[in-house]
Amino acid sequence: MVVERNVDELHEVQLQGGSDGGGVGRYLLHRAKPHLPPWLGVAGTGLAGFLGNARWGESAAAGVGLTLASVALTGATWWAGKSTSQQRRLHSAITVAAGSGWLTAACLAGPTAGPIGDLYLMGGPVVALSWNVRMVLRRNADPAGEGSDKGLLAKVGLARAQVGAAKVEPNRVTAPLALDPGEQTHDDVTKSLNRLASALDLPRTAVRYRPDPGSERRGDLVIVPEDMLAEVVEWEGPSNVGGSIADPLVIGRYDDGAPMYLYLPGDPEAKRNSTHVLLAGGSGSGKGDTALNLQTEILSRTDVILWLSDPKAFQDFRPLLDGIDWAVEGGTPTEVMVEALQATIPARTRWLGAHRYRQWTPACAQPQNDAEHSCRTDGRACGCEGMPFLVAWMEEAANTLRALGDDAFTGIAQEARSAGISLIVSLQRPSYDQMSTSTRASLPSVIALGCDPRDEGFSLPESVIDAGAHPGAWSNRRPGYCYLVTPGIDEERYASPGRTRAFTSRAIPVMEQLAAWALRYGATADPVTAGAAASVAGNAYTGRTRTADTRAEGAVGGGRLSVVQGEDDMEYGSRHVDAEDVDIDPEADLPEAEAGDDAPIFGQETGRKPSPEEARELFARALEEFEEEGRMIVGPKDFTDWCDRNRLSRPWVSARLKEAAMDGRLEATNTTGRWRIVPVLTAA
């Protein structure tokens, strides 16, 4: 094909190169060649009329045969043209019918008899010129009408669909598509996307269909010929340091180079609601880098605080810990955080209502000096401290859901948005055996990374998958590739793939600087949020530490707290002495044995039974110890070491737990056998 094109181009140059009469003649002949076939057909038909008349002019049988042949040829032309456009089919059939009809008349009556000769002289040029005009129009017309696009749609089973004028943008072609009325629907286009991508030699994710919500036969076909996501882009810093959390968070880019935006708070002016986010992707799909993209954007804003639960001990997020208001590992600390979240929702909602906010806006984070948002009854500004937005991040949430139940986040997801709280749930497979359907339905936004093809429906809405989204095509082979479905962006973007930025070792110093900046300039928990959290979590929240100069050696109750103590800080000889044993004289004789001291075995009824007063005092002291350590969710198994130390039995502990609940020192949680310690001041 390339050789033939080069020969034609050379021939064209040769034809246009001469200025003599021979050169002009060759040029005109070359230009006339494509238009000669219709005229040759007219001439051939006239010659056939003369020869046929000489042979069959007096034959009645020949007249019948010629008539039947004319009808058969016209019908065959109509049948053969069914794969072409309606106009070409009709034009071909009319031409064949006119030509065969004149030939039959010329063979029987003579080409010059009566009006037959005049019909030939007038009709022949008209027919030939009609084909010439058609050729010129086809050559200069939009190819969407009769050209390659039409043939392409025929190949994929959409022959009767009409393609409008395409809109060409950088690395993006959008063509309006009108389907055959009564014969084709949006489902036909959706089913043909694979074949269309094959015909264009593009990946499946490069071809998408955007249906018109007001019509079942109209939509837009979107083709992205070049994958601009193949190049890895490293994270170099947040997009808007010092901005508001209400501004868009930039977490990556789309396949046409446009930035990928995500909004967390709502906007009353834009009629956009606040949102929760599901971050889903298989192992190796880039979920960790995607989370870092979003967390660094959150920490760079001045009116938001972040709570983080991470059962992986902050493996990915450790450089950011100084900027996080409250960070806990999995297990009991996460249980405490979930309970604290549930307590903060009504407290924050009550504050918003008292200050006449229907939803959280950036003005909520500022001192309330506007009389229109005053909680006072006299109409004057109240001056209350502002309330920053709260993001609650549950990393590797499958671990938490297994421990707390698949509906652990249901109440939070359903109620938190009205309290200025955004819940972000990250896990590999958001199937319905891990997360309740109520929780999943309450997470309006989703960042869907590569996954098993069978899991696509767990992450993305069916309409987005029908439009061409296919995260199963990536699996873990293209880390960071994702689809974003969220309020605030054009729905046509839902099926457009994007890619988040990559975090390498070079990003660690920048993340640490960002965490130090957030610690100094970022928001702090307001009294309402802090008070509600402390009323449930106690020292687990109030004892957390955020110090830019401290690098935690351990975590207690989720706070960043160094637990290493040097020998110089202890008195010599007292390193292994418990606090309660300081006053014991090591030279004194041991006390006499008491009844039951011979069987201090945990789990048995035998053992020394303290008096009711001693029992109440011992158990109260145990709860205080747990509270000081930040272990605010307890059950019988948490008292194993304590029982061994005090030589008490498990049934005795179970009875004391029930008594403490009746006294208001404990509250039942959603998990059977687990109790939440009510902080001392709250209980009082």
From TrEMBL:
Q: Does the keyword Transmembrane helix apply?
A: yes
Give the residues the record marks as binding ATP. 281-288
Note the coiled coil stretches, chain numbering: none
Q: Where is the FtsK domain?
A: 257-458
| Top-level lineage group | Bacteria
PROSITE patterns the UniProt entry points to = FTSK
Which chain regions cross the lipid bilayer? 60-81, 93-113
Keywords assigned: ATP-binding, Membrane, Nucleotide-binding, Transmembrane, Transmembrane helix
Q: Where is this region: Disordered?
A: 590-612
UniProt keyword rRNA-binding, yes or no = no
Q: Please state what the protein is called.
A: Sporulation protein SsgA
Organism, as annotated = Streptomyces ortus
